[in-house]
Structure formats: structure tokens, C-alpha cells
């Protein structure tokens, strides 16, 4: 049954490639309206395949996908492109015009929008990705991180309600990763975009994801709140993943050294707060 609260709802998806490789098996997945969900999995677990199926780029042998309650196969192509935007892992699969401005204008221009509206869409999309200053630059002169932001702007210029990104932080340096997460978070919180973010970078997720879906060998191991999923050590191990580094440090201090830490912190900020609760105040700010 379609749930009106879901932006994307997939049930019982199975997909095998033509050479017989089974990439998805009985996958259920959902994204609530306005939610930021991470699709977390190790290499080869089916993230890209699931994204292709959710976006209608690969047809599953079994199962159904609904976008805002409507069956994927029944949504006209043009409407689908304006509802759901997909950003591929490699920006060069997506960028093809000579300049940034031309590239981002491609989608809205193809919708038949008038030149002023196209212009506005391009400015707004580039602005949202902190890339307005790149507008006149040649695509092939951009750094990898800039290319990634421009590729997202190109999808955003179609004004989608749902954004699905395949490893948007892969290949970025730490400050580029952080910037990307902050920009996506802003699109989600201020712009109301529902976001699916495929990744295996677990340390970034406590900063942005509301919910996390863990895939392993083409099946869903679990989907739930980021806090519940990212603290589940055994399940993450089974998926070839690990706890966030800060969480494993505090878990070891708790289990091996008996440090009485409340709960399992997921971020540096939370860990600091928990530690300050138990460190005697008289030793703080003491100079050696
Ligand atoms: N075109 C293809 N033909 C045959 N098998 C494929 C094809 N593309 C992917 N696969 C296989 O499907 C499975 C899932 O691959 P997929 O690319 O979806 O995983 P992934 O989680 O995105 O991995 P990564 O983190 O490396 O990007 C893998 O076993 C992979 O070898
Ligand atoms: Mg992939």
C-alpha cells in the first residue's frame, strides 16, 4: 500500500545483471518526505544498482518502486526528471557542456522554460552549491570537488523534490567532504529536499543523516534512526563496516578501562560532553 508520507518507497526489489550477477535481492527501502537518509554499504553491496532502480534507469526483475505514492513505471519521463534528481558518483558522467553556466542550464532549457527563468534557475542552483563564482568557468578547468558541486547544481536546476546522490563525498579531501555535507544538509533543512546519500564514509553520517539503511550483498540488513544503526557494532561488522571512530574510542574506554560513559557518543561534540560529565573539574585547565 502506498503511504502518503513517503517520497520514495520500494518493496521486494530484486535485480540481476545480464551476466547473472545478482545485485539486489528482496530489498525494501523507504524515504520519508523531507528526510535525509544514508544508504550505507561496503563496496559491491548494491548501492549504485539500487540508485539506478529507484531512478528508473534499471528495471527490477521483481518488486515495485513508488515515488510520492505513484508507481515508477506510470510516471511520465519528463515528470520523473522534475521530481527525482540523480547525481552519479563520477561527475564526468554528468557534465558535458563547455562552461558551468551552459551545463547547469541544459536541463531547465530542455523543459522549454523561458530564458529569464532558465537564468534564475542556474543562479539559484549554483548559489545553493556555493558555486556561483564558477558560472563562466570551463568545465574541464574545474577541480574534482568543484565538478561534483556543479554536477549537483545541474540536477538541482530541475527543481526536484528528491535528490539521490551516489557517493557525493568520494574522492574529496576532508574539508571538501565537510563542505559537501553542509551544503546537502542546508538543501534538506532549508530547501525541504528529501535526500538519499549513498556512502561508506561512516564518520560523516552522524553529522547529517536522520536515518540510515545498511545494505549487505544486495539485501537490507537494517534501516532505522542514525543513532540506533550507527551504534550497532555487530550489525555493522557483518556488513563489512565499523563504528564511527569516536564511538569506537569511547566504547573501548568503557569496555576495556571501565570508564563510566553514559550511552555511546557518535560525534566529537557528544563525546566531549560525556567525558566532561565524568572528568573531575579540579584537573581541568591544570597546566603541566
Ligand atoms: N554492469 C554490471 N554487470 C554485471 N555486474 C555488475 C554490473 N554493475 C555492477 N555489478 C555487480 O553488482 C553488484 C553490486 O554492484 P554496485 O555497483 O551496485 O555496488 P556498490 O555498492 O555501488 O559498490 P561501490 O561501493 O564499489 O560503488 C556487484 O557484485 C557488482 O560486481
Ligand atoms: Mg557504487
Shape: globular
CATH topology of the largest domain: Rossmann fold
Mean pLDDT, nearest integer? 93
Task: Supply the helix-strand structural class.
Answer: alpha/beta
Give, in spatial order, the strands making up the sheet with the most strands.
6-7-8-3-9-10
Fourth-level CATH superfamily of the largest domain: P-loop containing nucleotide triphosphate hydrolases
Q: Characterize the quaternary organization of these chains.
A: single chain
CATH architecture annotation name of the largest domain: 3-Layer(aba) Sandwich
Tell me about the largest β-sheet.
6 strands, mixed
Please, how many domains? 2
Q: Number of helix segments?
A: 11
Radius of gyration: 21 Å
Fraction of residues in helix: 25-40%
Distance between the termini: 65 Å
Which molecules are bound in this entry?
Answer: adenosine-5'-triphosphate, magnesium ion
The top level CATH class name of the largest domain: Alpha Beta
Strand residue percentage: 15-25%
Tell me the series of helices and strands, N- to C-terminal: EEEHEEHEHHHEHEHEEHHHH
Describe the structure.
- This protein is of the alpha/beta class and 288 residues long.
- The chain has 2 domains: 6-243, Rossmann fold; 244-280, no CATH class.
- It is built from 11 helices and 10 strands.
- The protein has helices spanning 47-54, 77-83, 100-110, 115-128, 144-156, 174-189, 205-208, 226-230, 233-238, 245-257, 268-278, and strands at residues 6-16, 22-32, 36-40, 62-67, 70-71, 84-87, 162-166, 194-199, 211-216, 219-225.
- The strands form 2 sheets. A 6-stranded mixed beta sheet has the order 6-7-8-3-9-10, with helices on both faces.
- β1 (6-16) and β2 form a beta hairpin.
- α3 packs parallel to α5 (144-156).
- The chain is globular.
- The site of magnesium ion has 4 residues, from α1.
